Amino acid sequence: MLEKLMPRSDEFFDDFDAQCAVTVEGARILHTLLSDYRDVANRVQALKEVEHKGDSVTSVAFKRLHQQFITPFDRTQIHSLLSRIDDVLDFTNAAAARLHYYEIQSSLPEATELARLLVLCTEKIREVVGLLRLIKQPERILAGCRAIKQLERQADELLRAGKGKLFKSGVDHLTIIKWKEIYDLIETATDKCLDVANVIEGVVLEHS
C-alpha cells in the first residue's frame, strides 16, 4: 500500500496543494474576466502574477524532488504530476495574455463557457490531488479522474462548436484567427487537466 511508503514529511503533498490552489485561482481569474469583460490589462496582469507564483511553487517542488531521498511515490510520477499541473496554469495565462495583446474588445459566450469548464476541471484536480495525501479512498480518486475526463470531453465538443460558429459569423479573418488561438489555448489547458488525471490514475492503480 502506498501509505506504507509515505515519508514522515508532507512537503510534497503541500507542494501539490499549493500548485492546485494557484491553478484554480488562475482559472477563476480568466473566467471572471471573460464573464465580465472589463479592466482587461489589470486582470491579465493579476493572472500573470499568479502564474509566476505557480512557477515558484513548482521550482521549489522540483528542487525538493532532486534533494529528498524518500518520496511518497515514484519520482517520475511526481515529476509528471508537477509538470502537468504547471502546464494547466501556463496555458491559462497564455489565453489571458492573448486577450490583452490582441486588443480583444469584448468576450464571446463560447470562450466564457470554456473558461467555466476549465475552472471546474481545476477544482476537481485540487480535490483528487488532495486525496492522494492518504490514498485511503482510491474509488473516490478514480471517480474524480473520470469527472475530469468528462469535463474535458465537454470542452472538446464546445471547442468544435465554437469554432464552427466563429467561422460562420462573418467577422473579419484576423478576428477569427485571434479567437481561434484563444479558444485553442483554453481548451489545451483542459487537455492538460486530463493529463493530470491520467498521472493520478497511474499512481492510484499502481499503489492502492
**Low-pLDDT windows of residues:** 2-8
In round numbers, the mean pLDDT is 92
Largest sheet: none
Q: Roughly what percent helix?
A: over 70%
- How big is the Rg? 18 Å
Topology as a string of helices (H) and strands (E): HHHHHH
Structural class: mainly alpha
Distance between the termini: 6 Å
Instruction: Report the sheet-strand fraction.
Output: under 5%
Write down how many β-strands occur, each being a DSSP E stretch of 2 or more residues.
Answer: 0
The helix count comes to: 6
- Overall spatial form: globular
Structural write-up:
This protein is mainly alpha-helical and about 210 residues long. It is about 80% helix and about 0% strand. It has 6 helices and no strands. The longest helix is centred in the last third of the chain and has 35 residues, at about 175-205. The protein is globular, with a radius of gyration of 18 Å. The model is unreliable at about 1-10 (pLDDT under 50).
List the helices and strands and how they pair.
Blueprint: H1 11-35, H2 40-67, H3 75-101, H4 109-131, H5 138-168, H6 173-207
Helix pairs in contact: 1-2, 1-3, 1-4, 2-3, 3-6, 4-5, 4-6, 5-6
